[in-house]
Structure formats: C-alpha cells, structure tokens
Amino acid sequence: MSERPEQAILATDLPGAIKRSQGKVRDIYEYEDGVLLIATDRVSAFDVVLLNGIPEKGKILTQLSLFWFDRLTGLVPNHLISAEVEDFPGAVADYADILSGRTMWVHKADVLPIECVARGYLTGSAWKEYQATGEVCGHVLPPDMVDSQRLPEPIFTPATKAETGHDENIDRETCARIVGRETAEQLEALTLQLYQAAADYVADRGLILCDTKFEFGMIDGTLTLVDEALTPDSSRYWDAEKYVPGRPQESLDKQFVRNYLEGLEWDKTPPGPQLPGEVIAETRRIYRTIYRRITGTDLD
Ligand SMILES: Nc1ncnc2c1ncn2[C@@H]1O[C@H](COP(=O)(O)OP(=O)(O)O)[C@@H](O)[C@H]1O
Ligand SMILES: [Mg+2]
User: Which of 12, 25, 26 to mutate to test the pocket of ligand 1 (most atoms within 8 A of CB)?
Assistant: First the structure.
C-alpha cells in the first residue's frame, strides 16, 4: 500500500459561518440552513487530543459514516444533506481541497445529551462494572462471565455526554429522566436495531462489532441519527479470526496508539506526547484496513 507523505489536517478556518466550534476530532461550522461537520485528522486518546494527526483519518471516518448512513437508511433517518462540495454553502467553495471527502453538510439538530451505546460483548468499562457489581448499566448479567465474552443478547448502555472529561455510564432509569421515558425507549430500540444490522453485516466480513456509540437529535420534530456512525472512533471492531474470550482483544482502531502511549511515562493529561513516524504510519494503515474490510474497497 502506498504511504503518501501528505500532511495531516489538524485545523480549518472557513469564512462566513454564524458559529464555529471544535470537538475533539471535528470542526463544526453553522450556516443559516445547516452545519458543516469536518472530520480533521486529529486523534484523541484517553480523551486528550494528541499533537500529531493521522493523515487521511478524517476522510476514513467520514466515508465510513456515509457508507453506514446509506446502508441503515431504512431503519432511521439521518442528518445528511450532502457530502459533495458543490452543494456546500457558497462561501467555502475555495476550500474544496481541504473539505473534499472529509466533510458532511448536515441539518442542524438539537442533539440529545445521551451517548447511545450498544454492546454485544463484555469489555472495557462494562467489564469493569460487571466485575464490581455483576451488572452493567442496570442489566443483570449471568455470573461467571469472562472478559470479552459475548453477551446473551446485545444491551443498551447509555452514557451522559460530558462537556469535558470522560463520559459517565448511566442506567436506563436515569436516561429516561433526562430525555423522557418515551424517547428513552425509542433510543434503546433504535440503538439495538442499528447495532444488530451492522453486526450482522460485518460478521460476513470476518469482523465482530463489539460495541458502538450513536448520537441522536431532533430535526423538525423527528428523531434522527446524527454525528458519525459505526466508525473505528465510535466502535470497537475485532477480527473474528483472532477472537479469544477470557482476555482483552486487539481492536482495529486507535488501540495501536493507546498501546504506544501506555508504554510512556505520560499522566494522560494535556498536552499529549508527540507520536513517532512509525506509530503514525501504522495507525494510518490500520484505519485503511478497517475501511477496506468493512466496505470491500480501498479508500480513493
Ligand atoms: N446534525 C448535527 N447538528 C448539530 N450538532 C451535531 C450534529 N451532528 C453532530 N453534532 C455534534 O458535532 C460534534 C462532533 O464533533 P466531535 O469532534 O466528534 O465531538 P466530540 O469531541 O464531542 O466527539 C459533536 O458534539 C456532535 O454532538
Ligand atoms: Mg465525536
């Protein structure tokens, strides 16, 4: 695979927006009738944005989200207006080079303050909670489960969307208090349906969708899928061939970066360390691989 030495896009500066903001990964510009969501090449680990980016990472995230929006459109409406630069607000036409491939023009939503997580396997924060209590977000699980074990059935484990710092897992009662019972039930049902559809699809490609996080918002009174969907930033994908319950699995994403960082003496507070060239190149290769394994084609 060619390793083109393009630079990572770490920040953008576009004219004419009525409001601009920045997430960990995306630059967000609001115009009168919509929002430009630009996935930069920034990479965050342990909730800290690192100094280097991974070239092309933003494109891979956006192209995967588009792939999934398209496949899941029968289950839920999504926020996409267009991913073609010609359709974007006029003021940004000169920036096509930067925007192309990594940008979605979307309907502005009132984003619900819940991270809608579906889990098919017991790992990460859920494994920790299970070991301490035998439950995960209020779901009582069978005794004697092991790390990474497949759950009897997928579960909805919502979390609050923290403005800063780490998201906090909540139970379904708390979720219902925040968004109302009817919406909470809709969120749970939709999240599980989307998870199942995606997990079934990737299973045919030798992948396990361990868990994933969706965000939903209201657009013109309709509950709508927003943000990114089923990317390696929002999901844990495992290689089915390498799956062995009873230990942590290697996930096909930033795990490589995390492993590198775990080997450093860094206290996981900003600023993050500089990543060496080999770590950037390998992480880029992993992102390209997951793109190819999910979509069946190479990026570009
Ligand atoms: N259609 C939409 N309307 C308004 N905000 C949105 C929409 N889709 C996604 N967002 C918000 O845009 C931001 C995406 O930026 P990102 O870098 O992923 O943020 P984060 O650091 O919170 O993960 C998130 O806060 C998300 O809730
Ligand atoms: Mg995000």
Answer: 26
Q: What is the topology classification, in CATH, of domain 19-108+276-295?
A: Phosphorylase Kinase; domain 1 (3.30.200)
Beta bridge partners of 110: 218
Q: pTM value?
A: 0.95
**What is the architecture, at CATH level 2, of domain 110-242?**
2-Layer Sandwich (3.30)
Ordered alpha helix ranges (H), 56-113? 57-72, 96-99
Q: CATH 3.30.200.20 spans which residues of the chain?
A: 19-108+276-295
Ligand 1 pocket check for 104: Cβ under 6 Å: no
Number of H helices, E strands in the chain: 7, 17
Taking the centre of ligand 2 as the mean of its atom positions, its distance from the CA of residue 200, in whole angstroms, is 24
pLDDT in tens, 232-274: 999 999 999 999 999 999 888 888 898 899 999 999 999 999 9
Would you say the CB of residue 236 lies under 6 angstroms from ligand 1?
A: no
Q: Give ranges for CATH 3.30.470.20 in the chain.
A: 110-242
pLDDT in tens, 178-200: 999 999 999 999 999 999 999 99
Choosing from 102, 105, 107, 111 the residue with most ligand 1 atoms within 8 A of its CB, the one to mutate for a pocket test is: 111
- With a 6 Å cutoff on the Cβ, whether 232 touches ligand 1 is no
